Each structure stands twice: as C-alpha cells, then as structure tokens.
C-alpha cells in the first residue's frame, strides 16, 4: 500500500502531465549512436517552430544534454511551486542530473529503485508548466530508466528509435522497437543516424557504418522510417560548444534532414 506522501506525489505527477500536450521518448538499443544529439536537436527544432518544449534528460549515468545546450553552469533550484527548470537560449525548459550540482567527473552509482524515484521526482516536482511537447532523452537499452519513463508518463504519444546503419546497432534497435510495443508505447519511427559521410573535397559519399540497416529494421518490424542523418562535423562541433546548429549551419544537409524529420513527427502527432 502506498504512503500518503507517495499518493500525493502521484497526484502531482498527474497534474503536471495534464499540462503537457505531447510526450515523445527518444530511445536507442545501443550507446554511441547519437541519441542525445537527436533528442537535443528535435527539441531545438520544435522550439524554433514556435512550440513550447521541455527536454528531460533521464540518462542518469551519462547526462550530456546540459553540455550540448551550453548549460553546464545552470542549476535546478527549489521554490514554492516545486523544482524550477532552467530555460536554455533556445527557449527550452531543461532538466538533467548534470544540473543538480554533482561533480562532473564523479560517477553516479545507483540501483534501480533510486533511478525510478529520481525520474518520478522530475515528473512530479519540476514546474514544467504548459508545454506543447516534452522530449525525454533515455539512456541506451531497455532497462530501468526507459521502463520507468514508459510506466510513469501517462498518454505517451510514442517513441523515436535512433540507430546507426551498423548491423550490431540495428540488432539492438530492434529490441527497443519491440520493447516499445511490449509497454504499449507507439513507435513513431526509426532514425538512421551517422548514415554516410560526404567528402568535402570530392563530394562522394562514404558509408562508414554501412547503409540502410535502420530502414530495413523498420520495414521488417512494420514501423515508420523517419529518415537518414549523415555524419556532419558541424553538428559535432556545435554540440561540443553548446551552440544551436540550426542557427550556426542552416545550410547543412544534415540539419535540413533533421528539420524535415521534426516536421514529419509534428504532423504525425497532430493527426493522431
């Protein structure tokens, strides 16, 4: 039986989430595929289109979202309305464990119950306010964090699965697709990241991690394929500097593709 405090937290969570129109969970079966990069840039693109957006980083052991947004020094703080989420230059409400004042070099050594409790606190106690979209960046795999998110957030619109074309990454992405189905979260689509590198000197495309694996997995598992994002040095450099690549390199083919993917997602959700 739940305690009075737990029941009150459940009520706060439900009330907070009522103010969020759409919730999207970004997942990957394998680490190193650029999931956080995709999460950050989906959120940035939505905000640039005039939506009110919140970005929740649930990657407890490797919270990189704050760094990518140039918010290394921003901190969460408490007031009478709950925990206040800092707002980025891109007009995003952002919450991450990296904003809790921990030493950036110190590992977080938590077991499952602590992780679930932290995620629940972010959902129930952060003053998210009215949002058009909440983007949840999950750690790789199908463990405690994505399971907690999918169980705790009511009426999730769906998941976005990020993979590279490489066979081992695609193999794990299939697990994430089936995980979403098992927890009754619709799969909005698969994004194939790091899909080819265009040589700046000769213009030819080199498929460093293979080609087409993400689309093949999406087709075989009967979920939408959202597109391929090529390797782009500009995106990497912008993320490291906390810059918005949509502003620094709007002419980039990868940036144009990202923007198109976000248009597709927004349209898909609006029609649902």
Summary tags:
globular; two-stranded antiparallel ribbon; 7-stranded parallel beta sheet; 19% strand; alpha/beta; Rossmann fold; single chain; 272 residues
CATH T-level topology: Rossmann fold
DSSP strand (E) fraction?
A: 15-25%
In terms of quaternary structure, the protein is single chain
Task: Return the domain count.
Answer: 1
Q: Look at the structure and give the CATH class.
A: Alpha Beta
Work out the number of β strands.
11
Q: How many H/I helices?
A: 10
Note poorly predicted spans.
Answer: none
Measured between the Cα atoms of the first and last residue, the distance is 36 Å
CATH superfamily: P-loop containing nucleotide triphosphate hydrolases
Structural class: alpha/beta
Q: What's the CATH architecture?
A: 3-Layer(aba) Sandwich
For the biggest sheet, the summary is: 7 strands, parallel
Strand order of the largest sheet: 5-2-6-1-7-8-11
**What is the general shape?**
globular
Radius of gyration, Cα only, in angstroms? 18 Å
Helix content: 40-55%
